Amino acid sequence: MKKIVVFASGTGSNFIKIFHSIKNKEINGSIEMLISNNPNSGAIKFAEKNNINYKILNIYRCGNSLNKEYEIVLKKCNTDLILLAGFMKKIPKNIVKLYENKIMNIHPALLPKYGGKGFYGMKVHSAVIKSGDVYSGATVHYVNEFYDKGDVIIQKKIKIDLGDDAQSLARKVLMIEHEIYPKAVKQFCNNQISVN
After folding, report:
1. Which helix or strand (DSSP H or E) is residue 140 part of?
2. pTM score, two decimals?
3. Please, how many CA atoms are within 13 Å of residue 188, restricted to the half-sphere of its CB?
4. Would you tell me how many other CB atoms lie within 10 Å of the CB of residue 75?
5. Helix, strand or coil for residue 34?
6. Which residues contact 84 (CB under 8 A, 6 or more apart)?
7. Strand 81-84 to strand 2-7: parallel, antiparallel, or no bridges (unpaired)?
8. In what order do the strands lie in the sheet with 81-84?
C-alpha cells in the first residue's frame, strides 16, 4: 500500500475524490497527510471531518525554513507519492529532487497548451475560450522544477460546445479531472507506470 501526501490550497475536490476512491478500495494507497498553505481551505475542513492528519505550512508560519519543513513532514510520513490538488505554491527544488517521478499534478487543460506560470483555474479556461479551440480537457503529469513541464501520464479531451463560456467549460473539465486523476493514482499504486 502506497503512502500518499496531498498538497491542497482550496476546496480540494480532487483530494476528496481520491480519498473516496481509496475508501472504496479502488486505489491501493492511504492518505497519510494533507499539507496546505491555507488554514481556511475546504480541503482542511474536509480533513478535519474525516480524521485525516493535516499540517499548515506557509511562509508566515515557517519563514525561511519552509522548504525544510516540507522535507521533514514528507520523510516522517514515509511518503511514496505526493499529489498536488489545487496547490497554489510552486514545489521547491529540494522536494522535486528528493521525490523525482513521485509528485503528480492535475492541470485543467491539454498540456503543453495553456500551461506555465500564471495559468491556473479560471485563467486557463478563459484563455481556452478566447482562443477558439475546439477541444479542451485535463492532464495528469509528473512535477519537475518548471511549471507544468513534467512528463504527461494521462490526458483526456472534451469538445467545447458553441455556447460554452469559461464557467461551463470549468465544470466539464472538473468532471474529467475527477475521472483521470484517481486513475493515474491507481496505476502508480499498482506499479503500472514506467518512466522512460
Report:
1. strand 135-142
2. 0.95
3. 27
4. 10
5. strand
6. 6, 7, 8, 91, 103, 104, 105, 106, 143
7. parallel
8. 54-56, 29-36, 2-7, 81-84, 103-107, 135-142, 152-159
Neighbouring residues of 125: CB distance < 8 A, sequence distance ≥ 6: 108, 136, 166, 167, 169, 170, 173
DSSP-derived letter for residue 151 is P
Per-10-residue mean pLDDT, the chain, length 196: 97 97 98 96 97 90 80 96 94 94 98 94 96 97 94 97 96 98 98 86
pLDDT at 5: 98
Give the separation between CA 96 and CA 103, rounded to whole angstroms: 7
Find cell 512528463 and name the residue. 151
pLDDT value of residue 58: 85
Distance CA 85, CA 146 (A): 17
Q: Active-site positions?
A: 107
Angle at 156 between CA 135 and CA 29, to 5 degrees: 155
Half-sphere exposure of 84 (CA within 13 A, CB side): 26
Any idea which residue has 502508480 for its cell?
Answer: 188
User: What pLDDT, on the 0 to 100 scale, is given for residue 63?
Assistant: 65
Environment class of 118 (CB within 10 Å of its CB; exposed 0-12, middle 13-18, buried 19+): exposed
